Amino acid sequence: MKDIRSYTILNNEVKMPWLGFGTYKVENGNTVIESVKEALKIGYRHIDTASYYGNEDGVGTAIKESGVPREKIFLVSKVWNTDQGYEKTLKAFETSIKKLGTDYLDLYLIHWPQPLSKETWKALEKLYKEGRVKAIGVSNFLVNHLEYLLEDAEVIPMVNQVEFHPYLIQNDLIEFCEKNNIQLEAWSPLMRGKIFEIELLQELAKKYGKTIPQIVLRWDLQMGIVTIPKSVTPSRIKENSDIFDFEISKEDVDKIKQLNKEIRVGSNPDKVYTCPDIFNR
């Protein structure tokens, strides 16, 4: 992990940058265009969006205007719950790439576990086999959801993007994904700002001469977790990327791990789907 373009290698040999730029709740239009362009200017090469975010066309415009060749960017989108199912997913994919102004994605994810996730996964497998997507994966899948999906999957997911931060580590999920060679990725790594309230992180920021977000994002990487912080402020976009010039000691990594309380700042995946028993067989 030498710099912002350092990458992990997924289970199908595709290279995925450790640090990405998230766009959740970034307003479409000039706001997302300028923030993504700024991120690319700084050196980010991993951009994460989703159809649900409503800003895919802005992300696409930013990529086009940035001057960075498309093939140099690891571009991610996701299929939303109401678009799940085999045919609807294929149609949703076409809509997404049209908005993004590209003919392929580097990673396409199922946004949340749903009763139709197996059918949706078959569509993702088709896109992957056709070369329309370089890697496929899931988002917000817990162990029971992954076990359900893997019952019939021909392709093992390359990535599982989940809520992950010092208060929500999910050791069982980490263990399952490591066992199945599925790369974990963190959304909401900064706990929607709540990290600033944690005394240990305040102390570590002083110790390492870094900001609290930098401590948390560096901790993510040392935990082996890809991370995608979001900001629309140029100085913070840059700050979030300055995490490759220091290393947190093993002792301090463990101290942060001990903060785990299994507390979420986002939705619980077990409460987002509509059939409570389908994943618990």
Topology:
Elements: E1 7-9, E2 15-17, E3 21-22, H1 30-42, E4 46-48, H2 56-66, E5 74-79, H3 86-100, E6 107-110, H4 117-129, E7 136-139, H5 143-150, E8 159-163, H6 171-179, E9 183-187, H7 199-208, H8 212-222, E10 226-227, H9 234-241, H10 250-257
Parallel strand pairs: 3-4, 4-5, 5-6, 6-7, 7-8, 8-9, 9-10
Antiparallel strand pairs: 1-2
Helix pairs in contact: 1-2, 1-9, 2-3, 3-4, 7-8
Describe the model.
Strands 3-4-5-6-7-8-9-10 form an eight-stranded parallel beta sheet. The model has no long low-confidence stretch (mean pLDDT 96). The protein has helices spanning 30-42, 56-66, 86-100, 117-129, 143-150, 171-179, 199-208, 212-222, 234-241, 250-257, and strands spanning 7-9, 15-17, 21-22, 46-48, 74-79, 107-110, 136-139, 159-163, 183-187, 226-227. By secondary structure, it is an alpha/beta fold. Helix content is 38%, strand content 13%. Helix 1 (30-42) packs parallel to helix 9 (234-241). The longest helix has 15 residues, at 86-100. The protein has a single domain (7-271), classed as TIM Barrel (Alpha-Beta Barrel). Strand 6, helix 4 and strand 7 (136-139) form a beta-alpha-beta unit. Keywords: NADP, Oxidoreductase. Residues 19-260 form the NADP-dependent oxidoreductase domain. Pfam families: Aldo_ket_red.
